[in-house]
Amino acid sequence: MQGNLITTEVVFFHITSGTVLFTDLIQQLPASSLSGWRALVAKLDLMVGPEPQVPRKFRVAFTNRRAARDAVGRIFAWPAEKVLMAHGTPVEKDARAFLRRAFQWLAA
After folding, report:
1. CATH code for 12-107?
2. Is the confidence at residue 108, as pLDDT, over 90?
3. What pTM does this model have?
């Protein structure tokens, strides 16, 4: 995923299992693990919620939207069945629909 001022993330696809692997680009922290100002920052950054998503800091840092859309297009083309990420609940069904929701902000 290129085009981001904060990070360039490598996203992997494991063919045998149909699993897309992310490190930091998609996150979901357990709300119960945070308190005080950290909980507020995580909520404002979209890192706490019902399903994993791209944090707000990364969304804003995608200054080259064309490069990001190209990369997401390649990810959408994969026959994804699952999604794993370093910071979040694994997605074990409807992976393609999940990925579309996670990156719908990029289409705008």
Report:
1. 3.60.15.10
2. no
3. 0.90
